[in-house]
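Appendix B: complex inputs.
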Amino acid sequence: MACPTHLKYTKEHEWIAVDGAVGTVGITDYAQSTLGDIVFVDLPKVGDSVAANQTFGSVESVKAVSDLYSPVTGTVTEINAELATAPDKVNEDAYAAWMIKVELANPTEQETLLSAAAYDAFIAEETGK
Amino acid sequence: MADDTNVLKKTALNATHRSLKAKMVDFGGWDMPVEYSGLIAEHMAVRTGVGVFDVSHMGEIQFRGPASLDAVQRITMNDAAKLEVGQAQYSALLTDQGTFVDDILVHKLGENDYLLVVNAGTKDKDFAWIRSQVGAIHGIHISDYSSYYSQLAVQGPRALETLQKLTQTDLAAMRNYRFVFGQVAGIHNTLIARTGYSGEDGFEIYIPSDVATTEKAWNAVMEAGAEFGILPCGLGARNTLRLEAGMPLYGHEISDSTTPIEAGLERWLKLDKPADFIGRAALRALIDAGGPANRLVGLEMVERGIARDGYPVLNETGETIGMVTSGSPAPFLKTNIAYAYVPKAVAESREDVFVQVRANRVRARQVATPFYKRPKK
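Resulting structure:
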């Protein structure tokens, strides 16, 4: 599945949509597919600080637990509370089931992230296809 | 350039799994499906309907000749002399120290004819062990027939109805842990056993391992089960099903550092069977010295958090007292469960323990196993 082109990506398989000074973060379809049935999403609290390339939570499937890495530095302004009771929303549509919104401390930071094409190429390399 | 997948062994259904878009993993050197439609859906299909697993990676070792029973008795902990022709039993190969080489199923095919079904990842080790221990006995022929068999497991409350469509053998008349040779989907001399690793009713069938025959059997089972919503099931569901059903897995609950006593498998450990067997002296000595220090216990997480294999188990004061051997969400029970080794006194007290789940210390209560028992009909 090709990735939405309006998003930016990390090598840890998160996506971010930036709108002005706010970034919305989730995990990619490739990530949810690799994890399998997601049963638990552990997110920070509103007001918490997150830092680029640092963990901000975890996502857990039946098989395994995996850290979530923030693509950017900033402050959490909102979390997707729906995921506490319906973590499987991430499996249904990983690009709709956002996890946190972050007020960006450094708006130029996102320029270092991967484009959709670069992320697709990265996945292709990882899976050897 | 070497292609990694070329070194993995493939079952006869490899192309089938790929065409079903299964997620494939390296499991003990085999390229195996871990899930197809999704682990939870597959797990639930087996608990409520029927599922089919390709378990062709399992190993089959046959003992033939007049000394077969002596050899099987010598290398296994259960009493194979109790078997009738057409009966199987759970058993294990033990080391001299009474720890596990592997856990196995022993099928008595005929007088002087036994088939041992062993784990895939340990098969070569098992075969070498068996040959080194009983290979020199006069009057026995030991053969590794693993590559000759494909094995399908049809499991779930609708497994009988599914498979019955494909055979003249009266499956309802077959008791648990019994087997016959019959015809399935037109394939002659199929070993049909009422066994499984899911905690549900079900059957395991052993067929010739050529691609055409194996695909024919798989497709016939899929078609027969369609009306019951059959799903192809991967190793992911196989693991959560066996864990809910309280069945041990080699490399987790049992290993070359654990004995059947601490693993709670004494029911299958026949220390007083008429023949001596490897590991018996060590286990008797261990019992005389007070028994092993630890016991395997079932845990249910009381607080939010999922125990995983290898996570430390702590007591109330925060001391590490044990380790999780398998842990997972239990898709049918909808709780988070685990197996762990803890000191015998802790197991006997039934007191709550704590599992170190990454940064969090999560309370768990000791519960009886199996975690799940299928309803009696």
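The domain at 8-127 of chain A is CATH 2.40.50.100 (OB fold (Dihydrolipoamide Acetyltransferase, E2P)).
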